[in-house]
Amino acid sequence: MNSKDAKLADHVSLSKPTVLADNKGDHNIPQLTKQMNNLRIVVKNLEKERDFYLSKLCAIELICQKHGNEHPLFFKVMEILYGTVEEFVGPEVGTNNDGNGE
Which residue spans adopt a coiled-coil conformation according to this UniProt entry (predicted)? Predict the structure, then answer.
């Protein structure tokens, strides 16, 4: 996350939903709309950053695959690229960005 996203995330409360003062909650619509728009910007920037680093890793992977037999370092890099962490949970297959799976 770059500094602009960090500053934006500081202004957006992700931990607690806004408590509605009345049953309708209409007075919160502008605030929630602004928060939703800010979160969309953060997500868009994070996706760009993710894609940037993924393209770098893919380029490194191709180099290592092409020259893997020339030096043991390439093999070690491939081990790192393909290694996983036991606690890692990837995205569920079949879900879209809103998590509905539709």
Answer: 29-56
Query: Do 27 and 21 touch, CB atoms closer than 8 A?
Result: yes
Number of H helices, E strands in the chain: 3, 0
Q: Tokens representing 56?
A: 């770098």
The crossing angle, in degrees rounded to 10, of helices 72-82 and 29-67 is: 150
For residue range 46-56, what is the model confidence (pLDDT) as tens digits?
999 999 999 99
What token pair was written down for 81? 């690229």
Looking up tokens 């709309």, which residue turns up?
Answer: 33
Report the predicted TM-score, pTM, of the whole model to 2 decimal places.
0.55
Q: What is the DSSP letter of 68?
A: T
Contact 35, 42 (CB under 8 A): no
Planar angle of CA 15, 92, 96, nearest 5 degrees: 80
Contact 78, 64 (CB under 8 A): yes
